[in-house]
């Protein structure tokens, strides 16, 4: 199976064998565009070119041809909004990335108009620039003639899964899956359909929207020109939901957290769209045979992105792995906290106007303190989410399954277990996002008979047990909460 993982900072293709073992991987870093403060864009042609290049490279590395691939699974950065011409497939604008805050004012107006309860009931989300609807509204209002053309059915909206599917099928299929649709603010997660009232609220013509399928489905066939032979596309999911599948979190109460650019914790809540009373999101975890399973999600916008900033912005570390050595060099940060609210704060604060801070600096503060504070922030933010999940009721999770680029940092995993006070489990395959996409594809083609066979394939590589004493855990976390209060725009 060939999994395409189109993430925020890179595009990867991984070939998995039928046992879920990665056989070959190819990756390209993705260019980021920051046209204004709080704006983030991607060039759709970069995404498309990188996708085809990494797919071919992974096949070559594996010594396989397209005919050896039984199916393709696609997983993607979610919410990122693309608008393209239905006839030519050409993008009308750069994609507006999930981190982009340009629609903060629109969201404030919608709040003021009292739209929140309707939106929350139907979508399980809150009104925030994070999601696709206001980004799409911005494109329709700012790209010349886009709105009239959209009304005439000449344009397509989609998240990146949908864009890639359209291109891979040579423009034959305009579809998405329930997990990606559930991040748009336009999709009713109860009825599993686009919602007319929400379309009116956000001013989105229905003609723009893709068809919504299960996560394992016959999405279409990738044309022979891309890989050398036609290959069916049978799995598709937003990256965090794909990771939930890759981590085999199939029972209510199971939770995974993925540490890439951001951090996203998804708690399986079963077949009812349970709502958080603590500003977490409810979302489709996966939908199979028309039956949705839901998750409560905590979304943190900056995790690994803070490490990237230390590397590329401040240039105080040569590579991400160096962050572990800095953290290990110190017994603690001496009271230094970093709140990496570079693009506002996500769950549970939802404060698009907050900006980051480094506090508690003294003459003794060195680079290592700042680097360690960036890593610690990832753990404190995860604790914030777990506190909300606990306050929502339900059985507290007994362990956290982790994955994503950051989890190879052993120091970080130990500190995470210490701050959460529960064991952290790192699987053998940490590319669980891609693995989840491969599983979803394989479930459709019969490579996997059921979710049980996926569960049986999950293997733990290492367990990190909490070792910090309770008083230290409480003191450090309280310091974090104070630091967050100082960056909140609504408390200023
Ligand atoms: N050893 C490490 N310690 C801390 N952070 C790391 C380490 N290795 C990678 N990262 C961070 O992980 C992120 C990459 O993870 P990845 O899952 O590839 O991200 P994404 O899918 O969001 O593009 C980067 O932000 C990088 O800074
Ligand atoms: O690209 P990632 O892995 O940071 O994931 C992005 C999320 O899907 C955004 O919601």
TrEMBL record:
Keywords of the record: ATP-binding, Glycerol metabolism, Kinase, Nucleotide-binding, Transferase
InterPro entries to which the protein is assigned, alphabetical: ATPase_NBD (IPR043129), Carb_kinase_FGGY (IPR000577), Carb_kinase_FGGY_CS (IPR018483), FGGY_C (IPR018485), FGGY_N (IPR018484), Glycerol_kin (IPR005999)
Sample GO molecular function, one term: ATP binding
Gene3D superfamilies noted in UniProt: 3.30.420.40
Pathway(s) per entry: Polyol metabolism; glycerol degradation via glycerol kinase pathway; sn-glycerol 3-phosphate from glycerol: step 1/1
Entry binding sites for sn-glycerol 3-phosphate: 8, 78-79, 130, 239
Reaction catalysed by this enzyme: glycerol + ATP = sn-glycerol 3-phosphate + ADP + H(+)
Activity regulation information from UniProt: Inhibited by fructose 1,6-bisphosphate (FBP).
Carbohydrate kinase FGGY C-terminal domain segment(s): 257-442
Pfam families: FGGY_C, FGGY_N
Residues annotated to bind glycerol: 78-79, 130, 239-240
Highest taxon, organism lineage: Bacteria
Binding, ATP: 8-10, 261, 304, 308, 405
GO BP terms, alphabetized: glycerol catabolic process; glycerol-3-phosphate metabolic process
NCBIfam families: glycerol_kin, PRK00047.1
Free-text function comment from the UniProt entry: Key enzyme in the regulation of glycerol uptake and metabolism. Catalyzes the phosphorylation of glycerol to yield sn-glycerol 3-phosphate.
Protein name: Glycerol kinase
